[in-house]
Amino acid sequence: MKRRELQLEPKEGKQNMGAANKNEVPVKDAPHYSAPALEKGLDILELLHQSESALTQKEISARLNRSVSELYRMLNILVRRNYIANYADKFGPTTKLYKLSQVHPPVRRLLSAALPIMEEISREIDFGCDLRVYNAGSQTVLASVDAPGGLGFSVRTGSEIAVAPSASGRVLIAFQDSDTADLRLRESLKGLADSEIKSFRKDVHEVAVKGYAALQSRQYEGLYAISFPVLDINGYAIAALTVPMLPRIDSSRQASREDVISALRGAADRLSQING
């Protein structure tokens, strides 16, 4: 499997690639079009997906600083198209957007290949595992397999996870070209102190050299996470295959970290070959 080391620092004397395609219009020169109805619909969807609970029409209008009347028809259309649901006059998101994302051919191909492999290594090591992708400053869990014994730490499919505290977050940044890595760093580390960003950059570089990430959780006592990249044909990470290890305190035998690293490396290599 081809692995590509990351260069996080800006390159000196970088060649202007804009001349490679004279017909391509730079983003900064693209015209700015107005589509008020679409903007309102997207505002509603983003608000409801970010809210921890369903919201009334009045609460939605207040948070979006729009009148109730201008949102009424938009809410009805979104309910009719099953993007949101009305729960006793409170609105919340459905799973339609998540289902649509899985229909996208590359995602569907990745999932169909990943699930049997994930189930296989979970039986081998007796830990759960999951598959995560980068998503605009955070991570989305595409698939999750519980430990065969039914006990252990697991992450729910569809969960959104912060990038910075996790092993998988380091993987999803480490195995990218330098421009993509810098963009993801800026998106996912907003609000962190300069010292934390510097430390994270160092960790990411070490992951790129090592080939995977393994670290003690800063959120859950005793939890240890190991994550390997699933690479495309160019050696860039399209996903992170992750095993959260929660040690038992009884006399039951468990797979060691070395066992998990070996199994996870083999699984990630197989997935990379399938999707490469």
* Major beta sheet summary: 6 strands, antiparallel
The unreliable regions are 5-29
How confident is the prediction overall: mean pLDDT?
Answer: 82
Q: What best-fitting shape do the alpha-carbon axes yield?
A: globular
Percent in strands: 15-25%
Q: How many β-strands, per DSSP?
A: 9
Helix content: 40-55%
Terminal CA distance: 9 Å
What order do the SSEs take from the amino end to the carboxyl end, as H and E? Answer: HEHHEEHHEEEHHHEEEH
Lateral strand order in the biggest sheet: 6-5-4-9-8-7
Count of DSSP H/I helices: 9
Rg, Å, rounded: 21 Å
Structural class: alpha+beta
Can you put this structure into words, describing what you see?
With 276 residues, the protein is α+β, with helices and mostly antiparallel strands. It has nine helices and nine strands. Strand 8 and strand 9 form a beta hairpin.
